[in-house]
Write a structure and sequence with these properties.
By secondary structure, the protein is an all-alpha fold. It has a single domain, classed as Fumarate reductase/succinate dehydrogenase, transmembrane subunit (3 helical TM bundles of succinate and fumarate reductases). Helix content is 75%, strand content 0%. The relative contact order is 0.13. Bound molecules: protoporphyrin IX containing FE. The site of protoporphyrin IX containing FE has 21 residues, from helix 2, helix 3, helix 4, helix 5 and helix 6. The site of protoporphyrin IX containing FE (HEM) has 21 residues, from helix 2, helix 3, helix 4, helix 5 and helix 6.
Length: 233
């Protein structure tokens, strides 16, 4: 029987791995819902700048006067921030555990397999997405980063930004990372939540993950490219 070494035991202190995986899966499902709603909201710009501004205004005033201005927005922001922190903490802990288990158990480095490729893609891709989200908030929410001048209306900010080719490129690359993260993330979450019960079910999960990733990537990229190519002004 394999006995674990001191570093491996130390790394395994803390919550059980299945609990951490459940945290990653549940917060991941929450992100998927957010991303779908956000993507749908962005597509409003296809109906014109006024429709988009009205939608942005509605997000801030939803539930008034029962809720204060931006009340729902703040509930969503706090929920998202808590989920991001939990998702990162749980996946980083699992990442560290996987690393220490390997170095203590194998004399030789294990051969690269699809498993390790996906694990690496999820970890580094996840960090790239985090960097994108920080940039994105500095760009559209706090407007610390201005790409094509300052604009009072949300629609104008979007339209002027995506008239700049490199802004479209940054967002396009980020959406490819998002698609890859979703592709494998949906699969991983389904495994953790015990949905993968048969071969047929595995096929269905694969299909759903491909469909979801495609919808999200294409849906998010329609507005920037439509703006870049002059379909929305
Ligand atoms: C092409 C892709 C995207 C576009 C064009 C876009 C556009 C926008 C815009 C215009 C806003 C500001 C809304 C407003 O001022 O009312 C915003 C906010 C935000 N977006 Fe995106 N977004 C994209 C992708 C994403 C992705 C992939 C994520 C997360 C994974 C994300 C997360 C957020 C967050 C957290 C906010 C801040 C909401 C707030 O606190 O006010 N966005 N986005």
């Amino acid at each position: 029987m394999a006995t674990s070494t001191a570093p491996a035991r130390a790394a395994r202190k803390g919550p059980p791995s299945i609990l951490l995986k459940t945290v990653v899966a549940v917060t991941g499902v929450f992100f998927i819902l957010f991303v779908l709603v956000h993507m749908y909201g962005n597509l409003m710009i296809l109906s014109g700048p006024e429709a988009f501004d009205e939608y942005a205004h509605h997000l801030r005033t939803f539930g008034e006067p029962m809720l204060p201005e931006r009340g729902l927005l703040w509930v969503a922001r706090i929920g998202l921030l808590a989920s991001v922190l939990l998702h990162i903490w749980a996946s980083m802990t699992l990442w560290r555990r996987a690393g220490s288990a390997r170095s203590s158990r194998y004399a030789a480095k294990p051969k690269t397999s699809y498993g390790t490729f996906y694990a690496k893609a999820m970890r580094w891709g996840g960090l790239a997405l985090l960097a994108f989200v920080v940039f994105h908030i500095l760009h559209f929410t706090t407007q610390t980063v201005t790409i094509a001048g300052e604009h009072a209306s949300p629609a104008e900010r979007v339209i002027t930004s995506f008239g700049v080719w490199w802004a479209v490129l940054i967002y396009a690359v980020a959406m490819v990372f998002l698609g890859m993260h979703l592709l494998h993330g949906v699969w991983g979450a389904a495994m953790t939540l015990g949905l993968n019960t048969s071969l047929q079910r595995a096929e269905q999960i694969r299909f759903v993950s491909i469909l979801l990733a495609t919808i999200v990537v294409v849906g998010f990229l329609i507005p920037p490219f439509a703006i870049l190519f002059g379909f929305i002004e």
